[in-house]
Each structure stands twice: as C-alpha cells, then as structure tokens.
Write a structure and sequence with these properties.
By secondary structure, the chain is an alpha/beta fold. The chain has a five-stranded mixed sheet with strand order 4-5-3-6-7, with no helix packed on it. It has three domains: 59 residues, no CATH class; 113 residues, no CATH class; 135 residues. The protein has five helices and nine strands, in the order αααββαβββββββα.
C-alpha cells in the first residue's frame, strides 16, 4: 500500500471540488460499504479511475479536504427534523451517525426509536446558504463547528431558530465574513445560557432583526466586536431576552438602521443599557422599543433623533413611572404616545 502522502499527491483535490453528481457519490459509498475498499474516481469527462486505497486512508483524505465539519449532540428523548437543507445543496452534506459507523446516512431526521449519541456532518463543497439549517431542531442539545474553512456562506437567517433544547454552541471556528443576513439566527433558543460571538465578523450584515429574540436564559451578551455599519433592520433584536441584566451597545453604528420596533421589548431584567452613541436619524419605527423593560432605572436618550420616526407607539409602555418621567425630562421630542 502506498503512503498517504503519495496518495494525496496523486489524487487531485478536484475530487472534492468538482464532484457534483450525487450518483457518483453514491457509487463511491457503495464501494466503501460493500468491499471495504474504495475506488477513488476523478470526475471529469472521461471518468478516469484512480487507485485503490483502504477505508482508513479514505477517511484521512476526506477529512483533510473537507471544508466544514459540524459535530452535534442530540438531546435525549427528543426526535424530529434536525437539519433543513436547500434541495440544490443536498448533495453537499454528508451525515454520519455515532461516528463509529462507516456508512453515510442520507436521512435528515432522527427516528424516535434510534439511539443516537453523536452526529457528524461533513461539507466538502462551497455551499452559499445556511438559511434555516437547524431551524426548529428541538432535538439538538449541542452544536460544535470543528472546522470552517469556507467563507462562501452569505445567509444565516434562522440558522438556529427554534432550537429549544440547545444548551451549548461552539462557534469559535465560525466564518461569517461574507454573511449579509443574520435575522432570527438564534431566536427561540430558550435554554441557551451562554453565547460567545467574539469570532463573528459582521462587516457585511444588513439584517439583525430578531437575532436573539426569546433567548430567555441568556444572561449576558458581549457584542463589542460587532460592526453594524451596514445594518438596516434591528427590530425585535433582543425581544424577550428576559434574563439579560446589562447591554453595552456603545460601539454600534446605526447610520443605516430604519427599524427598531420591539428591539428591547420584554427585557424585564435589563438594568444597564448603554446607547450613548446610537444614531437614530434614519429610524422610522420605534414602536414598543422598550416595552416592559420594567427594571430600567436610567437611560441617556438626550441625543436621540426622532425627527423621521413615524411610529413610537408604546415605546416605553410597561416601564416604571419614575423612569418614564426621566425620559420625558431629557428628550422633549418623544411623543406622548410612547408612554401610553
């Protein structure tokens, strides 16, 4: 048997870059299962045969060139859809159960009778969208991105939305440099207590609406590295984050934001909120922005520009009477409808 280095030198990386046919992919895995010996096929016009390598060499080779690797731990006694893939991208996702099985599993759901301790997803191709990837995956307890070499992903809308059993997320290898849409990305992750977003690059993001909405157990959130220069929508961004006590958003640049309705609505534990550098000149909607922020005692809104705001109904409804009086005293441009 030739060394792995010799195999890697002989087999072109084009196998994983250009292998587009799911039928070819099926043939490869059929060989893997039935013969325990894999015939690598370089997919081109002539379908040239490569060399025979054993299963361990194949695993090493495929892992070397895989672009994204995700490890998932399902919640016990939970089952249901766990991955939602766009039809055109289906052939790019290779899913393995328990890591001790050699075959690839094509199913995209967990059977309630199946004992699954771990799921591994390997993505070898430049998929462009992770929209709704784990949407409503109530059976997932932990997701870890072990490898993220691609930077093609431009859409992460609703990626973890509705993951109501999710307790742990490791995004340290996450690449978000080309992402434009992060709307609803973590919405309704009701059991998520910690979220480290220090690796996030948000330079190109336009939509952050409902990004953390209904993350009820999230106690703190460090967004000091967030670049919001291009963001237009921040509506419902922290809506229902009822355990967060302080938020420092002094680094936020809101020059392009037009919608802030329900942005902090239901943040009932929020005591400290730094909005000192908030630019609201282009905002047209502030409806229910601080709705039922009942723990807020002080907030500097003296520089808030509300000239273009069309709707500020119930902006401070549910806040303490003492807090409302402070707001009225410091900013005369806020209409009475904001308090009733």
């Amino acid at each position: 048997m030739k060394s792995l280095n010799a195999i890697n030198n002989k087999i072109s990386k084009e196998l994983f870059e250009n292998l587009k046919s799911k039928y070819i992919l099926q043939k490869i895995f059929n060989n893997l299962l039935k013969k325990k010996l894999l015939v690598i096929i370089k997919y081109n016009k002539n379908i040239q045969k490569g060399i025979n390598i054993n299963i361990n060499d194949y695993k090493n080779y495929s892992e070397k060139y895989s672009s994204i690797e995700i490890e998932i731990i399902p919640a016990f006694n939970k089952y249901g859809d766990f991955i939602n893939i766009n039809k055109e991208d289906e052939k790019f996702f290779h899913i393995y159960f328990n890591n001790d099985k050699e075959e690839e599993i094509s199913r995209k759901y967990l059977d309630k009778n199946e004992q699954v301790q771990i799921i591994k997803i390997i993505i070898d191709y430049p998929v462009e969208s992770f929209k709704d990837l784990f949407n409503s995956c109530y059976c997932i307890e932990s997701v870890c991105f072990k490898k993220f070499n691609r930077n093609n992903i431009n859409n992460m809308f609703g990626m973890f939305s509705g993951c109501s059993s999710l307790k742990k997320l490791n995004l340290s290898n996450f690449n978000t440099s080309n992402v434009k849409d992060m709307g609803c990305m973590f919405s309704n992750c009701k059991l998520l207590k910690e979220l480290n977003l220090s690796s996030f690059n948000t330079n190109n993001v336009i939509d952050m609406g409902s990004m953390f909405s209904k993350c009820k157990l999230l106690k703190e959130l460090n967004l000091s590295n967030f670049n919001t220069n291009n963001v237009k929508d921040m509506s419902y961004m922290f809506d229902g984050c009822s355990s967060i006590k302080k938020l420092n958003l002094s680094n936020f640049n809101n020059n392009n934001v037009t919608n802030m309705e329900f942005m902090f609505s239901g943040c009932s534990s929020l005591i400290y909120l730094n909005l000192d550098k908030f630019n609201t000149i282009n905002v047209t909607n502030m409806r229910n922005m601080f709705f039922e922020c009942s723990s807020l005692r002080d907030l500097n809104l003296s520089d808030f520009n509300t000239n273009n705001v069309i709707n500020m109904r119930f902006m401070f409804y549910g806040c303490s009477e003492h807090f409302q009086k402070k707001i009225k005293a410091q900013n005369m441009n806020i209409k009475e409808e904001a308090f009733n």
